[in-house]
Design a protein that fits this description.
The protein has 3 domains: about 260 residues, 2-Layer Sandwich (Aconitase, domain 3), CATH 3.30.499; about 150 residues, Aconitase, domain 3, CATH 3.30.499; about 180 residues, Alpha-Beta Barrel (Aconitase, domain 4). It is built from 21 helices and 27 strands. The protein is globular. The protein is an alpha/beta fold and about 650 residues long. It is about 30% helix and about 20% strand. Strand 23, helix 18 and strand 24 form a beta-alpha-beta unit. Strands 21-22-23-24-27-26-25 form a 7-stranded mixed barrel, surrounded by 4 helices. A 6-stranded mixed β-sheet has the order 7-6-3-4-5-20, covered by helices on one side.
């Protein structure tokens, strides 16, 4: 029996475990990336491990999230990260060089390699044939130190793409269609592998698709490395890293999905979930207030050249605010040199810096109840910075055409010829990337006032007794647990300050109550913790005393982050038992330490209602050691 792409890469990087779906494996990591919203904590954790220099083939620290400097906090974090790069041997991508995933795709990605990043959209690298996985900062810190990354061997879904997209239909519409088919939890525990006739899809288009595989809950997504891949790498003057990569003809998959690209139409993900899909034609005529084009999903040279073609010689509707953020300095330079940037500016667009910006709530919040079309990857409630903002996720073509008309407009009937040839050579100027210093040079780490120690848990007690400090519903995201935005992001290295905002979208009284009650249990519904990889959604609840989360099901990265922090992710054996717990109930798990050690069934006792509720846990031996020790760092130090 042949192997698929996922199996081939994992086999080449397997450190331990069996390649049997659902069983824990450990793989060697070739490359890592961090960004500044998660990076500060990751480097504090790396320092705590005590390894003198990174041991990967390539590790890069990007400054792309907290670039709005309204106080000293962000600038101080950036100085700390740059000093860590100098001391420990990392590349440092300076502010203004671009978004981590776009720059990494351009300058560092390599087919067949493994990439672990402290950002959930790290799977963007799958567009070039990498096994690129998002994880919490602590997992990335371990990988930087040469440690393996542990995960359950995923099942693989094959998506065969047939035919070609019609004019006005984009790669973004492919992934939105897949979200409609699979939902935001349809990829949990799985890798999405693409095949079929892929010759018409460029690497940036493939990267758009793999980027938003994160919204499926997938471990990662990946395309083959073919002739299109080779030409892209050669145009980036990195052809030497190309290796062909394809699934065997007789490879097997858990499921096969066939998509006829010629039948797809422009789509939108409607508020407030990436899988709430409607056709643009069904939204046509609805008034809009704002358009934002960019993010790691749709800010490539190809994307923005198409936008420039649509805007050329026209003017943005008078009631619409249009902002555009190129994904990298390379993209911006090339647009400036070929005149496309002038066409964009002349139409009335405002140009933002090469950074994540509005995607993570860093500026450009829409007006009250405003309708915002965004080419981004997430439209969770409140993420834009406006509590009642109505955010729709669309392609750059839909966004640009609608910005001109002022209403939702189907680009299929309203666009010129959008053919854009990929450059035979991209402009290469890596002057904003600081290379690793020689190991022989000595550099000091610069610590700043905003950087506070991260919380450490204690050993798991024999009995766990606490109140249900919070009860929430289905699809709670990491944005619900630990919001982003310009007011909060500068304090990602200051857990005590961040704690004031924990679960603020759900219940603003939670932090005060958690401190008053000494923490407790959080009760959740389906797909608890979906969204970004931010481990702050585990570290801040830890600081507030959360001992365990009992939910119907968990998102992969968040469950791993909880375990890394020593917080137990526990699942209802019977989902109906969710209704048998109310906020404020006194709960107890007797003999919990023994249950974890032996793997015996756990019972949650609701002392308030005199009920016994069975729980399920599937912890590996490695995870048991972490939970018993009170988290990964404690377990590492005790080893």
């Amino acid at each position: 029996m042949g192997m698929n792409i996922t199996q081939k890469i994992i086999k080449n990087h397997l450190v331990s475990g069996e390649m049997v779906p659902g069983k824990e494996i450990a793989i060697r990591i070739d490359q890592t990336l961090t960004q500044d919203a998660t990076g500060t904590m990751a480097y504090l954790q790396f320092e705590a491990i005590g390894i003198p220099r990174v041991r990967t083939e390539c590790s890069v620290a990007y400054i792309d999230h907290n670039t709005l400097q309204t106080g000293f906090e962000n600038a101080d974090d950036h100085r700390y990260i740059q000093s860590c790069c100098a001391k420990y041997g990392l590349y440092y991508s300076r502010p203004g060089n671009g978004i981590c995933h776009q720059v990494h795709l351009e300058r560092f990605s390599a087919p067949g390699k493994t990439l672990l990043g402290s950002d959930s959209h790290t799977p963007t690298g799958g567009g070039i044939g990498m096994m690129a996985i998002g994880a919490g900062g602590l997992d990335v810190a371990v990988a930087m130190g040469g440690g393996a990354f542990h995960l359950n061997m995923p099942e693989v879904i094959r998506v065969n793409l047939h035919g070609k997209l019609r004019a006005g239909v984009a790669a973004k519409d492919i992934i939105l269609k897949l979200l409609e088919i699979l939902s935001v939890k349809g990829g949990v525990g799985k890798v999405i592998e693409y095949g079929g006739d892929l010759s018409s899809l460029s690497v940036p288009e493939r990267a758009t698709i793999t980027n938003m595989g994160a919204e499926l809950g997938a471990t990662t997504s990946i395309f083959p490395a073919d002739e299109v891949t080779r030409k892209f790498l050669e145009a980036q003057k990195r052809g030497d890293v190309f290796v062909p990569l394809a699934a065997d003809d007789d490879a097997e998959y858990a499921r096969v999905i066939d998509l006829d690209l010629s039948t797809l139409e422009p789509l939108a993900a409607c508020p407030h979930s990436p899988d709430n899909i409607k056709a643009i034609k069904d939204l046509a005529g609805k008034k809009i207030d704002q358009v934002c084009i960019g993010s790691c999903t749709n800010s490539s040279y190809l994307d923005l050249m198409k936008v420039a073609k649509i805007l050329k010689g026209k003017t943005v509707a008078e009631h619409v605010s249009l902002v555009i953020a190129p994904g990298s300095k390379q993209v911006l330079d090339m647009l400036a040199k070929n005149g496309a940037l002038s066409d964009i500016i002349s139409a009335g667009a405002r140009i933002l810096e090469c950074a994540c910006g509005p995607c993570i709530g860093m500026g450009q919040a829409p007006n009250s109840n405003g309708v915002s079309l965004r080419t981004f990857n997430r439209n969770f409630e409140g993420r834009s910075g406006t509590a009642d903002g109505q955010v729709y996720l669309v392609s750059p073509e839909t966004a640009a055409v609608s910005a001109l008309t002022g209403v939702f407009t189907d680009p299929m009937a309203n666009v010129p010829d959008l053919t854009v040839d990929m450059p035979e050579e991209f402009d290469i100027n890596d002057n904003m990337i600081v290379k690793p210093y020689p190991e022989s040079e000595e550099h000091e780490v610069i610590y700043c006032p905003n950087i506070k120690p991260f919380p450490l848990n204690k050993e798991l007690p024999e009995v766990l007794t606490a109140k249900a400090v919070l009860k929430v519903g289905d699809n709670i995201t990491t944005d619900h647990i630990m919001p982003a935005g310009a007011k909060i992001l500068p304090y990602r290295s200051n857990i005590p300050y961040l704690s004031q905002f924990c679960f603020g979208v759900c219940d603003k009284t939670f932090p005060e109550r958690a401190l008053e009650w000494g923490g407790g249990f959080v009760i959740g519904g389906q797909n608890y913790g979906q969204g970004s990889s931010r481990e702050h959604a585990a570290l801040v609840p830890l600081y507030l005393g959360v001992k365990a989360v009992v939910a119907k099901s968990f998102a992969r990265i968040h469950a791993a982050n909880l375990i890394n922090s020593g917080i137990l992710p526990l699942t209802f054996e019977n989902e109906a038992d969710y209704d048998r717990i109310d906020q404020g109930d006194e709960l107890e798990i007797p003999a919990i330490r023994k249950n974890v050690e032996d793997g015996t069934p756990m019972v949650l006792i609701n002392k308030t209602k005199n009920l016994q509720i069975p729980l399920t846990t599937v912890f590996t031996d490695r995870q048991k050691k972490m939970i018993l020790a009170g988290g990964l760092l404690n377990a590492t130090k005790n080893a």
